[in-house]
Amino acid sequence: MNTVEEIRFAIEHLPEKHVKTPAGWFDGYRERLWDARMVADAISGKLDFLVEEARRERATGTLCRFP
Question: Where are the domains positioned within the chain?
Fold first, then answer.
């Protein structure tokens, strides 16, 4: 299987009881990709604005706290 179309075809022809396995794996895979992107963005400084925003809110007493 080398194309998305072939993968899609294979999944569509799985018995219903076997669809959960690749679906669960795919969800986990997407989460790992997202986590890796967040780490890369944090390391590169792309998320520094969030840290600065939190520092400003903390300094002004407007930082939202959740119970």
Answer: 16-60
In 3D space, the residue among 36, 8, 6 whose CA is nearest the CA of residue 23 turns out to be 8
Tens-place pLDDT, residues 25-53: 999 999 999 999 999 999 999 999 999 99
CA distance 34 to 50: 17
CA distance 60 to 13: 58
Answer yes or no: pTM beyond 0.85. no
Evaluate whether 41 touches 35 at the Cβ level (below 8 Å).
no
Distances (CA, A) of 25 to 8, 19, 28, 38: 15, 10, 5, 20
- Residue 41: what are its φ and ψ, rounded to 5°? -65, -40
Enter the DSSP assignment of 18. Answer: G
